[in-house]
């Protein structure tokens, strides 16, 4: 089972001036409350529930990811006592500009297989970030693909798209992520590539 984030809530609060506020002080605060579901000894779910500006969409996406992966687990393994499903999350970045979460669904049945999704909120603007938002008028695919191809030699990587996983690290750099088996053998695990913006 994956390691869970301990505690009943993670509180994120910021006060700053920015372009969206025309130099006026703006405060965007976020809280994350873990909601736990237990469906037998072999199923554990810890769902992050976010509160704050523009979080309804993120919560909806997380619930949909959980529903999709749990449904696949039930279809493949039913009530087998030899298989387990674990759903949890980690706060990757929590600084003055970004809040980034990693949400992971892991199925264990002899071997284990994980799928992860990443969600980033820009606290300056109080909204979820898409990769293309980070490059303004530049073609984000051209910029990101060029950087990744230098690092991902020997993989089957061709191009990022609007659904490619990413997060912002503590240095406010873009980190592009590929699930196990997505562009390389499962044995290489999850692959991550850092891109300077």
What fraction, in percent, of the residue positions are helical? Answer: 10-25%
Tell me the domain tally.
2
Average of the residue pLDDT scores: 86
Strand content: 35-45%
Which radius of gyration do the C-alpha atoms yield? 18 Å
Question: How would you describe the shape?
Answer: flat
Order of helices and strands: EEEHEEEEHEEE
CATH class of the largest domain: Alpha Beta
* Strands side by side in the biggest sheet: 1-2-3-4-5-6-7
- Ends apart, CA distance between termini: 35 Å
CATH topology of the largest domain: Heat Shock Protein 90
The number of E-state strands comes to 10
CATH architecture assignment of the largest domain:
2-Layer Sandwich
Name of the CATH homologous superfamily of the largest domain: Fervidobacterium nodosum Rt17-B1 like
Could you name the ranges where pLDDT drops below 50 across 5 or more consecutive residues?
1-25
Specify the biggest β-sheet.
7 strands, mixed
SS content category: alpha+beta
Signal peptide: 1-24
Keywords: Signal
Organism: Intestinibaculum porci
Protein name: DUF3298 domain-containing protein
């Amino acid at each position: 089972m994956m390691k869970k984030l301990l505690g009943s809530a993670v509180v994120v609060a910021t006060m700053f001036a920015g372009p969206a506020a025309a130099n006026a002080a703006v405060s965007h605060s976020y809280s994350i409350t873990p909601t736990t579901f237990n469906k037998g000894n072999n199923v554990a779910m810890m769902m992050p529930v976010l509160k704050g500006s523009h979080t309804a969409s993120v919560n909806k996406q997380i619930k949909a990811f959980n529903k999709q992966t749990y449904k696949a687990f039930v279809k493949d393994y039913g009530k087998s006592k030899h298989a387990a499903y674990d759903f949890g999350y980690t706060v990757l970045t929590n600084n003055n500009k970004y809040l980034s979460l990693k949400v992971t669904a892991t199925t264990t049945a002899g071997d284990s297989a994980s799928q992860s999704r990443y969600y980033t909120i820009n606290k300056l603007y109080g909204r979820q970030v898409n990769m293309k938002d980070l490059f303004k008028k530049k073609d984000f695919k051209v910029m990101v693909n060029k950087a990744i191809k230098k690092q991902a030699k020997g993989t089957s990587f061709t191009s990022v798209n609007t659904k490619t996983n990413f997060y912002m690290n503590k240095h406010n750099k873009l980190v592009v992520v590929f699930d196990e088996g997505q562009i390389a053998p499962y044995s290489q695990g999850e692959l991550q590539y850092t891109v300077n913006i």
